[in-house]
Automatic annotation (TrEMBL):
Family per similarity comment: Belongs to the ribulose-phosphate 3-epimerase family.
Binding site for a divalent metal cation: 30, 32, 63, 172
Organism: Streptomyces tateyamensis
Keywords of this entry: Carbohydrate metabolism, Cobalt, Isomerase, Manganese, Metal-binding, Zinc
Pathway: Carbohydrate degradation
Cofactor(s), names only, from the UniProt record: Fe(2+); Mn(2+); a divalent metal cation; Co(2+)
Catalytic activity, reaction form: D-ribulose 5-phosphate = D-xylulose 5-phosphate
Tagged with keyword Glycoprotein: no
One BP annotation, GO: pentose catabolic process
Domain of life, source organism: Bacteria
Annotated protein name in UniProt: Ribulose-phosphate 3-epimerase
Known EC number: 5.1.3.1
Length: 227
């Protein structure tokens, strides 16, 4: 089943509790953590995640676009995140980190920037609960979707199927009504949407509409029909 994770990067930061409530029905709330080092932007950190976890029943999906995730990621689990994503380009010991995140009780996820291939990390996939393929360069919301990532999504889905894994495949960046069907057809089943949700007149309805699009595309996708 397709999952829609609205990104609070596109929400009103002065009204985060209300913005979290505005997307009731979403599967997860995607929280972008940026440190102005790994990416050229600065957003929020552990205290805001703690506050958000108290303000919403929707589980938090924290995407750490930061240096030294080995040091910081466990703190986001302790702050209340149900899923924590680290970038493999920044992690010193990705397997150890994934195991630590899981041991603390959260889902462990690994992200790849657009230029990072999936193939070198095939053996790591069983250590993960989710893999995130960035469909824009990380760091800023509102960027245009990179179609050149679709073959990478397909290759990743093939590797997941090859190993018989129950691994979620997430896409993040430029996901909208115009692009979500292509992502689903290629193999993604978790979709981060920022401005497509929070820029809509009714964010909750936007979530429902995007999920319906994704599920319709998945129903006829070759990778889903093969299951």
């Amino acid at each position: 089943m397709a999952q829609i994770n609205p990104s609070i990067l596109s929400a009103d930061f002065a009204r985060l509790a209300q913005e979290a409530q505005a997307v009731r029905g979403a599967d997860w709330l995607h929280v972008d953590v940026m440190d102005n080092h790994f990416v050229p932007n600065l957003t929020l950190g552990v205290p805001v995640v703690e506050s958000l976890a108290r303000a919403t029943d929707t589980p938090l999906d924290c995407h750490l676009m930061i240096e030294q995730p080995d040091r910081w990621a466990p703190q986001y689990v302790e702050a209340g995140a149900g899923s924590v994503t680290f970038h493999v380009e920044a992690a010193a010991a990705p397997v150890r980190l994934a195991r630590e995140i899981r041991a603390k009780g959260a889902r462990a996820s690994m992200a790849l920037r657009p230029a990072t291939p999936i193939e070198p990390y095939e053996d790591l996939l069983p250590e993960l609960d989710m893999l995130l393929i960035m469909t824009v360069e990380p760091g800023f919301g509102g960027q245009a979707f990179l179609d050149i990532m679709l073959p990478k999504i397909r290759r990743t889905r093939e590797l997941i199927s090859k190993h018989g894994l129950e691994l979620w495949l997430q896409v993040d960046g430029g996901v909208s009504a115009a692009t979500i069907e292509r992502c689903a057809e290629a193999g993604a089943d978790v979709f981060v949407a920022g401005s497509a949700v929070y820029g809509a007149a009714d964010p909750a309805e936007a979530v429902r509409a995007l999920r319906a699009q994704a599920e319709a595309a998945t129903a006829t996708a070759a990778w889903a029909c093969a299951h």
